[in-house]
Design goal:
The chain has 84 residues and is an all-alpha fold. It has 2 helices and no strands. It is 83% helix and 0% strand. This is ATP synthase subunit c.
């Protein structure tokens, strides 16, 4: 029982950390490519900005799904039901 709880806590920490790391890297790349595209063609900056915000929302959604999975493991661990 303690091994499952300990491994679950480790998994939760990894999920939170990797979700934050992945989102940070994604936003960094997205912002850099947006600035590069806007500098090359300033007349398309409005269209690029709209698309950047759509992609930013999708990028946030991926991290939020990871956090939801971690919260599921934290508060309603399905692995504990397998012991009984």
């Amino acid at each position: 029982m303690e091994i499952i709880i300990g491994n679950t806590a480790l998994a939760i920490g990894l999920i939170f950390g990797l979700a934050a790391l992945g989102t940070g890297i994604g936003f960094g790349l997205l912002g850099g490519k947006f600035l590069e595209g806007a500098a090359r063609q300033p007349e398309m900056a409005g269209m690029l900005q709209t698309r950047m915000f759509i992609i930013a929302g999708l990028l946030d959604a991926v991290a939020i799904i990871g956090v939801a999975m971690a919260l599921l493991l934290m508060f309603g661990n399905p692995l504990l039901g397998q012991l009984g």
